[in-house]
Design goal:
The chain is of the alpha+beta class. Helix content is about 45%, strand content about 25%. The protein has eight helices and ten strands. The strands form two sheets. Strands 2-3-1-4-5 form a five-stranded mixed β-sheet, sandwiched between helices. A five-stranded mixed β-sheet has the order 7-8-6-9-10. It is globular, with a radius of gyration of 18 Å.
Length: about 230
């Protein structure tokens, strides 16, 4: 069962409303700074922050101790307007972990669930020929197409207990229950490439998923999906 950590930027609405009407640029700059710092500190702990809503972040956080998490919270507190609320949950189904974490974060400023962690499954999903489509139409039209596909994939992934995140370009990430990634392969359209990495270490799972996707792109495997396991 993977560990997911939900981070909420405290009093996000209050903070934005404290600024005057000429605030949106400042809001975007602050959000980008917070995300950059979160990604950096978690990446250094072999974790990965999924881009989500800018007032919430989801962290793939296997191997992160309660002490580690408390130290990170202290590190990022000074760059956030009013600090953060943090809930760390271990659950077989990522979507269920977030449901539970969302409930807890309303009541607690910090919560860490001690439990045995299992492998995490990261699926790196790539759209075929999206670059060519953009050249034939426009960058904006290809972006609309990506958003539509992202919505479709997100609904399908949620139906098997997983969650998704858009990483930019034409790349999507799906975090899946360890026994359901075959279901993803079965329900995904053939025009998608799916690189799957499986490891107890989030950063390693990300690396393996990218390596698997690269193998598909280079034609090293004769199918639209490839699975790599961490042998460590």
């Amino acid at each position: 069962m993977p560990r997911l950590t939900l981070i909420e930027i405290s009093k996000y609405r209050e903070w934005t409303e404290e600024l005057d009407s000429d605030r949106e640029g400042l809001v975007q700059i602050k959000q980008s700074t917070i995300y950059r710092n979160l990604q950096e500190v978690f990446w250094n702990k072999n974790c990965f922050v999924l881009p989500f809503r800018y007032d919430y972040y989801i962290v793939l956080s296997n191997g992160l101790s309660e002490e580690d998490l408390r130290n990170i919270v202290e590190q990022v507190r000074d760059i956030t307007p009013y600090g953060v609320r943090t809930v760390s949950i271990v659950h077989k189904y990522p979507v269920s972990a977030l449901l539970k974490a969302t409930s807890i974060i309303r009541r607690k400023e910090f919560y860490y669930e001690e439990s045995i962690e299992d492998e995490i499954v990261v699926s790196h999903i790539d759209l075929n020929n999206i670059t060519e489509y953009a050249l034939e139409t426009s960058i904006y039209e290809s972006y609309i197409e990506i958003l539509a596909i992202n919505y479709y994939i997100s609904k399908q992934v949620m139906s098997i207990g997983g969650i998704t995140s858009y990483l930019g370009g034409d790349n999507l990430i799906a975090i899946l229950p360890v026994d359901r990634y075959i279901d993803l392969i079965d329900i995904m359209p053939s025009y998608l490439k799916i690189g799957i990495g499986i490891s107890k270490i989030p950063r390693k799972a990300m690396e393996l998923s990218t390596k698997a996707l690269t193998s598909i792109r280079k034609g090293l495997v004769n199918k639209n999906y490839y699975v790599l396991y961490d042998n460590v």
